[in-house]
Amino acid sequence: MPGVGTLLNMLIIVVGGLIGLTARNYLDRRLLETLMAAMSACILFIGFVGATKESLVFVDGQLVVTNIMMLVMTFIIGTVIGEILDLDKKLEQFGAWLKVKSKNEGEGGFIEGFLTASFTVCIGAMAIIGSIKDASGDPTILLAKAMMDGIVVMIMTTTLGKGCMYSAIPVGIVQGLVTLLAFFITPWLTEQALSNISFTGSIMIFLVGVNLLWDKRIRIANMLPTLIVAALWAWL
């Protein structure tokens, strides 16, 4: 059934979050900090490997870097669009609204946890490809993604709190929309377009790790239009 992959993805994220919330009651602060550092390093690595996979190729036995111009131009254009729209502020406002509606006003890091987890589980070609496959009744890619998301959110929740498991909502919105629009967008998503999305998305995942590991405040949400610009770039 179309959409079942996204529904299971959302469910597993919530379950992972609940396990994380329970586990943090039995773990000391020092261990939680080390777990967060370890997860941050893993997110950095996932982003790095994803970007490397899409940018390094062997030509006549030599390693060649490709797509650099695409990366630079799409990030410039996409970030300018994102800053004009101020998507970061809008997502923060949505997180604040969720915090009130879910009666978690006393949860200090709710918005940070929500945003960080949302960026980690929503960005990437796997969500796009999996959602398109899900439209045809094949949820296997999203099920694999769901298991990874559940583990990531579980560990994040132990340190960043309840907000992380609410990342299931943007996952449902993004992947649900892609599934609904699969018939219209599939012809546009060429192999090169998906590669561009994966490349730019991996850079954003890397920046999520930077934010976590070095306590930075890079406005990743304002870079999200880069994913659309990167897909369109394949047609230039």
Automatic annotation (TrEMBL):
It comes from the Bacteria. The keyword Metal-binding does not apply. InterPro entries: DUF554. Coiled coil: none annotated. Keywords: Membrane, Transmembrane, Transmembrane helix. The chain crosses the membrane at residues 6-27, 34-52, 64-87, 108-129, 168-189, 195-214. This is Protein of uncharacterized function (DUF554). The keyword Transmembrane helix applies.
